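Hey, why these numbers?
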Amino acid sequence: MNVKKAFEVCILVSLIAGAVICCRRKETHPVSANTAPEYVLTYAENQSEGHPTTQGAYRFAELVYEKTNGRIKIKVHPNAELGDEVSVIAQVRFGGIDFTRTSIMTVSDVVPQFNVLQLPYLYRSSEHMWKVLDGEIGQEFMSYLDDYDMKGLSWYDAGARNFYTVNRKITGVEDLKELKIRVAESNMMEVWISELGAEAVPLPFSEVYSALETGRIDGAENNWPSYISMSHNKVARYVTVDEHSRIPEMQVVSKSTWNQLSEEDREIIQECAQLSAEYERVLWNQQEKKSRERMERLGCIVTELSPEETEEFRSASEQIYEQFCGEYKDIIDRIAAVD
């Protein structure tokens, strides 16, 4: 679903907006064990129950409930119950959904500055990324949402993405020549893979296994947990640890919901969002480590790129920086300068 269609969904959502707002209406009576919360708010999550981001959402809801003594209850809807990420973002902007966790790939369709955070080889390491996002630059990116009827609350981890292929190791740009590589349905990713000399094949994630098995594609790229959970290791045993992309995710609240809350409640929600992010990052690191250990036990062939080999890929990606983020060069330079 594109952004235009997503907003068409919002027109339908508006028909029930009155009911949604009523659910959030602040009651005047004091809260006790026998009374309803003052607010009942919605949280959209497209991942499954056991996924780290979903567990982070539940932790967020639990913390808010505890710290407000039950005055604010947040109901988490996993498994895309409230729609895919594109339609959910549209509904958050409209005010039909209160909270969500979303990939910055989705956010960038609405807020163009977020394309910067998707650039390949932008970060030197995971530590570098968190110094950027948890610092002044990260706060600036959060503030960009203010003009789009949203407020950013915290950054969630989604790991690093690596190449994996069926028949050959990837140790340099030349090794990608003429290979058919699956990419997510993202214009930037398609152009980038083509710049590296491979053929970009946009495919839904659910189709990657069969495409690898049948030879429709020669490889793909993703994080460790996704690689293992979808059994891609069975058909693409060669993994190149280049960590070309670290695409973080965000907890976001609707501006209309935020504006209804008292300053005290805003501070509580902000604090709980950050605590849940720290919790999610621990869960993600544990899952990532277990996934890699399992992959190695299953006999996958892992190639670690040297700094010089990584720089070759980085240099080959420079055109993408100019084409998609040329007007944000100052931000890119500031990110590179963080140590």
